[in-house]
């Protein structure tokens, strides 16, 4: 098992960006008076300085996570095989394709090897570019080959520095989003500080570098920034076209780099749908965003050789359904409160029915089953019946797919982030309810403002989108811990926007009957500055201590295994074992695998379940027959799985296999009444006794404290 051990000694307060006052939720636009020359110069200086601060903090974050990665592993000093082993599970699989493209005789040969790959899944040729989102590895490998940097920079450093560089893009995008929402770059500065001080909950890039989300989330943040700009009022046609282009490019890159893009954008589409129904954002802009999502996803589908999982996505079905339903129901935004509520309920039901029908129809035509494990997992997770499905239980038993731990909130509260976020969320939710009620009831907002201006509650379209976005992604994070990074980063944006927004403080002061414009200006700068000072004084020493702590990578058992495989097995040998380990085997040795961690394929899931019978209660003949059917030459058994203690009873891999096979689980505890004892002992334990029934099929050729490798006999 990998451990990290201690390394041995040796070897000015800003001015707000000008933002014209907007009567939000009021449909008629009005002309904006021109700025005086002095004000325009001040705005240019403010934007310039704010931009410099944004770039500086982006680069600072990039250097920060790169330094943490180096200090944690001593990456510059360890051997190549150790560097590759540090890319755990699916990270190693993705990086292996970058390595494969670098080592290919030519770019054309490298691409051919990916399109006609027969080493990732034995006795099968698959198209890696269709199955997996690895275009970023392809692009990066081509870039490395054509740039004159081979003598100065190793391929692995070019790869990880690119990912760390994307963190700079990520932070800058968050900074800009907060700046656009609040009108001051001070809000962006606070966002960046919160992102860094809450690093444990905002990113995991320093130890899961090649993970797809680390490629995708920076582009998602850019997309959100572009949408925030698009939803501002009084945009010129050229500005609107530029914003739409930015949204499209960011959406396309986000979709291209992560297989779960469709589910994230489905939540985003749902947010737009809610806001459009409540008349809180312009319908024309929402329509463009629906079209951009569909077109971006279809373009990725073409690049991925018409990947059926994309065509059968709920996102495409939902967006098409909304556009059809809107055409059928043309008078949604007319009438009184009850009339409109009735129309909206019918509209939502129509969209839901159309979505399910279109999705079912597409999946029936394409015979699509690639994503069924996700829906089985969701069904079991939210209590719609227990399941014995192996794939669903495999997800349910992983901590990353469980509920968000409560200690997350204590960490976020220590930086004041969660307290501020909760306060702003409550305030804007109340404002959103008031605005939505007013919109649905058909109140004449212009007259209302004329009669009672000081008590009118408004919510800008960009702020309304940010509110619904953070609520929906918050629900996702609370239900699935792995998705918290989509929420916590936007939490930094949302909280800092609320703390620096003149509209928020204006609303608070008016409720307290304390409002003056001067008081609002003082508070909107002083509170964020005090918060920044608090964060700096409290967390700067801890960050410095963290950066000074030196460790090194240490996993001698896995290193020994990989070196043995490279030295003692033929290059055409086929290996079976756990998904996580085999990804490292492919990366470090280039040997052929029976299975791997990229789980979005039904045949692979069935194959993995069969391979995992090495940890079940099966006869040696059965296991041998299964392994040989996949062309296996060697099988690797891991004590950490065979004698697992990490999970409780019922969630250990061997327990999941026992239940799926209809066998009673090991150890004390209850079993379902229809489970029966197995006729055979557990394979991974019994094979070590070298009984004749096992040695006739399997010969042990390698072992250490963690791994046991057996060579399969080749019977006629």
TrEMBL record:
CDD domains reported in the protein's UniProt record: Dpy19L3 (cd20181)
Top-rank lineage group of the source organism: Eukaryota
Transmembrane segments: 41-66, 215-231, 243-260, 266-284, 296-324, 344-362, 416-437, 463-481
Skewed-composition ranges (Basic and acidic residues): 14-33
A cellular-component GO term for this protein: nuclear inner membrane
Cellular localisation: Membrane
Keyword terms, alphabetized: Glycosyltransferase, Membrane, Transferase, Transmembrane, Transmembrane helix
Ranges of Basic residues composition bias in the record: 1-10
Membrane topology: Multi-pass membrane protein
InterPro entries in alphabetical order: Dpy-19/Dpy-19-like, Dpy19L3
Region described as Disordered: 1-35
Family the entry assigns: Belongs to the dpy-19 family.
Protein name: D19L3 mannosyltransferase
Species classification: Eukaryota, Metazoa, Chordata, Craniata, Vertebrata
């Amino acid at each position: 098992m990998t451990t990290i051990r201690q390394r041995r000694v040796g070897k000015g307060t800003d001015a707000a960006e000008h933002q014209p006052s907007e009567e939000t939720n009021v449909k008629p636009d009005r002309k904006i008076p021109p700025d005086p020359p002095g004000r325009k110069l001040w705005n240019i200086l403010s934007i310039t300085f704010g931009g410099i601060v944004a770039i500086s903090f982006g680069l600072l974050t990039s250097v920060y996570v790169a330094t943490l990665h180096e200090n944690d592993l001593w990456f510059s000093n360890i051997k190549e095989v150790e560097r590759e082993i540090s890319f755990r599970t699916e990270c190693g699989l993705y990086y292996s394709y970058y390595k494969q493209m670098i080592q290919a005789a030519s770019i054309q040969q490298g691409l051919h090897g990916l399109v006609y790959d027969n080493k990732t899944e034995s006795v099968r040729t698959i198209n890696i570019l269709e199955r997996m989102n690895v275009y970023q590895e392809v692009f990066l490998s081509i870039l490395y080959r054509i740039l004159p940097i081979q003598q100065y920079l190793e391929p692995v450093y070019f790869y990880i520095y690119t990912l760390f560089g994307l963190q700079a893009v990520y932070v800058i995008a968050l900074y800009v989003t907060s700046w656009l929402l609040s009108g001051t770059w001070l809000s962006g500065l606070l966002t960046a500080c919160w992102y860094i001080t809450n690093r444990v909950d905002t990113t995991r890039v320093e130890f899961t570098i090649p993970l797809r989300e680390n490629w995708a989330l920076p582009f998602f943040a850019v997309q959100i920034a572009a949408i925030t700009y698009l939803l501002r009022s009084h945009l010129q046609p050229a500005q609107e076209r530029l914003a739409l282009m930015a949204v499209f490019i960011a959406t396309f890159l986000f979709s291209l780099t992560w297989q779960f893009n469709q589910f994230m954008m489905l939540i985003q589409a749902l947010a737009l749908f809610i806001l459009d129904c409540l008349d809180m954002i312009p319908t024309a802009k929402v329509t463009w965003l629906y079209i951009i999502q569909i077109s971006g996803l279809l373009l990725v589908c073409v690049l991925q050789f018409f990947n059926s999982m994309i065509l059968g996505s709920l996102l495409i079905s939902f967006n098409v359904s909304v556009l059809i339903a809107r055409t059928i129901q043309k008078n949604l935004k007319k009438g009184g409160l009850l009339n409109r509520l009735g129309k909206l309920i019918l509209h939502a039901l129509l969209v839901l029915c159309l979505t399910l029908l279109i999705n079912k129809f597409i999946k029936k035509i394409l015979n699509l089953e690639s994503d069924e494990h996700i829906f089985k997992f969701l069904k079991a997770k939210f209590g719609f019946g227990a399941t014995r499905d192996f794939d669903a239980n495999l997800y349910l038993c992983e901590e990353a797919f469980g509920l968000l731990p409560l200690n997350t909130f204590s960490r976020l509260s220590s930086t004041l982030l969660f307290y501020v976020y909760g306060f702003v969320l409550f305030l804007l939710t109340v404002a959103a309810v008031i605005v939505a009620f007013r919109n649905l009831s058909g109140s004449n907002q212009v007259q209302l403002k004329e009669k009672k201006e000081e008590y009118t509650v408004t919510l800008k379209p960009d702020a309304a989108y940010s509110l619904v976005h953070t609520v929906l992604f918050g629900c996702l994070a609370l239900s699935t811990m792995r998705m918290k990074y989509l929420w916590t980063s936007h939490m930094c944006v949302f909280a800092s926007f609320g703390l620096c927004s003149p509209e928020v403080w204006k609303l608070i002061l008016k409720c307290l009957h304390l409002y003056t414009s001067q008081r609002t200006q003082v508070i909107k700068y002083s509170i964020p500055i005090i918060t920044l000072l608090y964060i700096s004084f409290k967390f700067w020493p801890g960050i410095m201590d963290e950066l000074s702590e030196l460790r090194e990578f240490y996993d001698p058992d896995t290193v020994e295994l990989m070196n043995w495989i490279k030295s003692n097995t033929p290059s055409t040998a086929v290996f079976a074992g756990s998904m996580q380990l085999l990804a490292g085997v492919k990366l470090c040795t280039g040997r052929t695998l029976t299975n791997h961690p990229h789980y979005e394929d039904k045949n692979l899931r069935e194959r993995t379940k069969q391979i995992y019978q090495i940890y079940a209660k099966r006869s040696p003949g059965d296991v041998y027959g299964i392994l040989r059917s996949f062309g296996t030459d060697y099988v690797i058994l891991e004590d950490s799985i065979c004698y697992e203690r990490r999970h409780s009873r019922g969630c250990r891999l061997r327990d999941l296999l026992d239940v799926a096979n209809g066998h009673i689980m090991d150890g004390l505890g209850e079993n379902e009444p229809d489970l029966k004892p197995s006729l055979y002992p557990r394979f991974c334990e019994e094979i070590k006794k070298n009984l004749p029934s096992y040695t006739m099929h399997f010969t042990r050729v390698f072992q250490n404290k963690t791994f046991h490798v057996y060579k399969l006999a080749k019977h006629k």
